[in-house]
Specification:
mainly alpha; 3 helices; about 0% strand
């Protein structure tokens, strides 16, 4: 988006976050809670001039659910093989020798080999 559009988005997110953090019924203690605020603002018209585009076709990508499903499926199996019960203790699952660029297996076609950047569908 434009500079003005990004600043407008950030203003809306900060204002809504400030409101939500004062209300117990608006909070959950989990990573990614900002996504719920983003969705709320989008679907209630709180993001002025926002336009939806199909997943993995634009300049920015959110691969949260997709990557999480892949990670959890594979990490669970590999952690079990390694005798680890808690996935949070299984750090560096796809990070080999400090190289984070291969954070998801190539076979899923979600990231560009060598850079780790999320690829478009085309």
């Amino acid at each position: 988006g434009s500079r003005g559009g990004i600043l407008s988005y950030l203003d809306a997110m900060v204002e809504e976050m400030d409101y939500w953090k004062t209300r117990d019924e608006c909070r959950i203690d989990m990573p990614g809670d900002d996504q719920s605020i983003h969705n709320y603002l989008y679907y209630t018209g709180g993001l002025k001039d926002a336009v939806a585009i199909p997943h993995r076709t634009g300049p920015l990508h959110v691969v949260g659910v997709e990557a999480s499903d892949i990670y959890n499926k594979n990490a669970t199996a590999e952690a079990k093989e390694a005798g680890i019960d808690d996935l949070w203790e299984f750090e560096g699952f796809y990070v080999k020798d400090g190289d984070w660029r291969n954070w998801l297996p190539e076979r899923y076609g979600l990231t560009e080999p060598g850079t780790g950047l999320v690829t478009n569908l085309d």
